[in-house]
């Protein structure tokens, strides 16, 4: 949990606890939310799975934003003893506590990447990312911060995002680090900000289910990001096929962790804990937050049902 984040120890066993589990007499550490250079991480997919193994993980999920582009490289490079879970983090919109629309992320696991409707929606989202990146770059250039969007897109891969602009700002000397980039030029709602049309949560949940996958809400109470989903909205998603909620995450306060754990128990949802690892773009370490093996088993079973 937040405030007690020791790499190699479980941070998701309930309020006030941090303990390891033996699973079939073997210690299993499971991290179900990571990013590579296929989106906004700094490790290549191959580097990420090797780092996961070195960190002592037994299971790692690759969940890049709106793309499956890193799957094959990660699978080919996965060391012996490491299980790779193929996943993705989908850009969505949902209903916030105040009734307004808020951006939110939905993790999708073990879906069929060739499902036509879901593949088309992922492609649309990636197009939205390109359009937004160009628009933000134009806004900054008009104000004396010239960044070449073509150069950024060339290095960004399929899922171009604001972190790629942030890296360009750092390299150009306009800001000192990524935190400064997002506190300044790239701030949500700031003078250069441009939104994008993301997938409504209810539509996304149904798409993932139709593609044979399992959906898990990511960091649904991330207050410092301004992304607080209305709890009743989450309740409404359950009959549509929502599989679980990411309860244990660095952006959840201890109080919100308890709220999400109680909601998961109420709705019988899978409970996950994950690092949301981005390499050097975030300070969190692989395995800093993890998922209990029993909950991982539920996720695997749900994908097979």
UniProtKB/TrEMBL annotation:
Q: Which GO terms describe its molecular function?
A: 5'-3' DNA exonuclease activity; 5'-3' RNA exonuclease activity
Which Pfam families does UniProt cross-reference here?
PHP
The record's annotation in InterPro entries points to: PHP_dom, PHP_domain, Pol/His_phosphatase_N, Pol/histidinol_Pase-like
Report domain Polymerase/histidinol phosphatase N-terminal positions. Answer: 30-94
- Kindly provide the name given to this protein in its UniProt entry: Unannotated protein
Provide the species name: freshwater metagenome
